[in-house]
């Protein structure tokens, strides 16, 4: 029963919360497995972190995405997830969960690309070997995207109220200042790659150009591969065709319940599932279980 409740809460949560749960679950899983078999966590994740060597990347191209779901330690995870939660709440008030996920994943990919290019192009990294992990590039893309799109929106952080562009600018300058001395130049370069993508995406969107649409179509195609064909996701919820007159209170209640279901289904037909409020989604989910 508890497992069903947790699964329901996960299914009905917004995209930012789902990403936070997934990141935290992967972090715990990796540490538990490493502990029980007596190895370091990197031994579990080496095929999922992003290496700097192109010859290795060819063998694990999925690492451009998977590295963004792995973290070095609990503080690395906590800091990234707090930023994802704060800025995700603002984005999801303006955009769909699919758009949010697109910014997150493409931010991670572009951050990873800049990291790899830098390590193979700039002489300063010639004798260095490294690998990349963490959601920081993806989170930076999220942060800069919304700070560019809605710069004067205010966010309450602890006891202070600041504008989004102030936060984004501070984070960027902080990364640039410590890049030469931090010992984590590769990670900070990835942050910059995510930030550049977030800025360009928001600027193009303001001009009416959705440069992430192709990626959304790709995600739709991929998820459809795992969906059962010719089956409705609301197979247990049926539209009323014939109505009978009755004075029974239970029948009246059923008719009112069905009318609400029909109204929600009509809304989905006109505007899509994402147009539903959380209350409507919860009601439809429960109706499908009856």
Automatic annotation (TrEMBL):
Domain of life from the UniProt record: Bacteria
Annotated membrane topology: Multi-pass membrane protein
Xref: PANTHER family: PRESENILIN-ASSOCIATED RHOMBOID-LIKE PROTEIN, MITOCHONDRIAL, RHOMBOID PROTEASE
TM segment ranges: 20-44, 64-88, 100-119, 131-150, 157-177, 183-202
Pfam families reported for this sequence: DUF6576, Rhomboid
A GO CC term assigned to this protein in UniProt: membrane
Recorded GO MF terms: serine-type endopeptidase activity
Keyword Transmembrane helix among record annotations: yes
Compartments it resides in: Membrane
Protein family: Belongs to the peptidase S54 family.
Listed name of the protein: Membrane protein
Peptidase S54 rhomboid domain: residues covered: 60-202
Residues annotated as domain DUF6576: 252-284
Main location as per UniProt: membrane
Keywords recorded for this protein, A-Z: Hydrolase, Membrane, Transmembrane, Transmembrane helix
Organism: Constantimarinum furrinae
